[in-house]
Amino acid sequence: MFSRSWIFTTILVILAALVCARLGIWQLDRLAQRRAFNAQVNAMRAMTALELPAKDDLTKMDWRAVRVKGTYDFENQVAIRNQFNGNQPGYHLVTPLRLADGEAVLVDRGWIPSDGNTAPAGWRKYDQPGEVALSGIIRLSQTQPVFGGSSDPALTPGQTRLDFWIFVNTQRIAAQIPYPILPVYIQLDVDPKRTAPPIPFQPVLDLSEGPHQGYAYQWFTFSLLLLGGYPFYLKKQESEKK
């Protein structure tokens, strides 16, 4: 019973049980993260719309409604690659909005088609001159994907700006704009009646707790079955030898 093969099998069973238990803990961690995210979103949605400019710490207000007045700076706008409107490929047009206090905030004005917009000159047909009053939600700066994917490239020698980006990286985009930029950006409110580009976009959020708790129970059950069932298996094998 205590041959080398049985010892090896026992070690494998114990390791498998530990792995299952760790996966259960990981799912509980994911559940806690999701609950924290849901609480953040619900707390921000319960607050009244923030009027910009404001002295608040905007980096703690992801998903809060916001209202702002200002003037677009079309000379310094950029486009975000790999954006779709249904099945139609295109970009999101991100334009600095100059505020009354001298600062500016990047505004994701929405989707534009790729056809006719592969160079900044093509974006000027979407200009909205003069002062505009906008409403939307505050979003945090993006940097890079959590799992794989490409980051925005660095500037090459002699290059002063990027026109096309993968993410709304407010810090890097601000580095190519000659005035202060707030550390967040705005996604405009969606208007279902709007069909002409730029078409505003906001992600649809699933604020449920997801399957994480159920998955955690499954992994813990597997762990208990391995630890509890293996001794019975050994006993059965021993009795069959007699």
Can you characterise this structure?
By secondary structure, the protein is α/β, with parallel strands linked by helices. Helices cover 34% and strands 25% of the residues. The chain has helices at 4-46, 120-123, 170-174, 212-241; strands at 50-52, 65-72, 78-85, 88-98, 104-113, 131-140, 164-165, 181-188. The chain has a five-stranded mixed beta barrel with strand order 2-4-5-8-6. Strand 3 (78-85) and strand 4 form a beta hairpin. Helix 1 (4-46) packs antiparallel against helix 4. The longest helix has 43 residues, at 4-46.
Q: Please write the string of helix (H) and strand (E) elements.
A: HEEEEEHEEHEH
What's the mean pLDDT score? 90
Oligomerization state: single chain
Number of strands: 8
Largest beta-sheet characterization: 5 strands, mixed, barrel
Classify the secondary structure makeup into a structural class: alpha/beta
Helical segment tally?
4
Percent of residues in β-strands: 15-25%
User: How helical, in percent, are the residues?
Assistant: 25-40%
Low-confidence stretches: none
Radius of gyration from CA coordinates: 26 Å
Counted up, domains total 2
Q: Estimate the global geometry from the Cα principal axes.
A: elongated
Distance between termini?
Answer: 12 Å
Give the strand order of the largest sheet, numbering strands 1, 2, ... along the chain: 2-4-5-8-6
